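Technical annex, item 7. During the second reporting period the consortium partners agreed on a shared format for inverse folding records so that results from different sites could be compared directly. Each record opens with the tokenized structure and is followed by the designed sequence. A conforming record, contributed by the partner at site C, is shown below for reference.
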């Protein structure tokens, strides 16, 4: 039997070591990033509501325009997007509300899994109010428990996304990006 060529043997060992490094490199980088404190996240566009709140457990009541109390838990599992208007809802507020309604429509076949609830004084113009009622249920927070989420600047609107079991998931402060809201909705509504 012929002895192995030492140069070829070293070359094949280096080649094997390089293949091992190619597979080990991502794990080494991930370990270094973890040790350094960096963690990837699937960050949403809304702010998480902490500490977590459950509107059913809190018995948070919203009275609708027709006098009924809003049911946080529906007959089928559906999320609720609560829009909280600042004072004097007009042009900018209506544009944000229209963007939210469009985000619901963009859910396509899943749009029925999202309810839209508007809390505040509806716009003064009858045309705007009628158009809103096509997409939104109108109501008010009976005990003012959602006041901390309501914007104080005129002609603004903020939003709270509520799960079908009444748990408030995310808060979208005034001036939020409706396309970011749509991305969040697509993640949670399937």
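Designed sequence (site C submission):
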């Amino acid at each position: 039997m012929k002895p192995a060529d030492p140069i070829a043997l070293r070359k094949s060992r280096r080649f094997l070591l390089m293949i091992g490094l190619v597979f080990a490199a991502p794990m080494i980088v991930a370990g270094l990033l973890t040790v350094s404190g960096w963690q990837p996240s699937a960050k949403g566009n809304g702010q998480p509501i902490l500490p977590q709140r459950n509107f059913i457990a809190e018995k948070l009541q919203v009275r609708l325009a027709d006098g009924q109390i809003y049911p946080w838990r529906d007959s089928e599992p559906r999320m609720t997007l609560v829009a909280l208007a600042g004072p004097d809802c007009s042009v900018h507020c209506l544009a944000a509300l229209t963007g939210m309604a469009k985000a619901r429509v963009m859910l396509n076949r899943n749009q029925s899994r999202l309810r839209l609830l508007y809390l505040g004084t509806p716009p003064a113009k009858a045309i705007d109010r009628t158009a809103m009622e096509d997409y939104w249920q109108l109501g008010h927070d009976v005990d003012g428990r959602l006041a901390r989420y309501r914007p104080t600047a005129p002609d603004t609107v903020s939003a709270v996304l509520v799960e079908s079991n009444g748990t408030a998931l995310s808060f979208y402060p005034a001036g939020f990006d409706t396309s970011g809201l749509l991305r969040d909705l697509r993640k949670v509504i399937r």
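Residues 89 and 155 are 4 Å apart (CA to CA). The first strand starts at residue 47 and ends at 54. All partners now use this format for quarterly exchanges.
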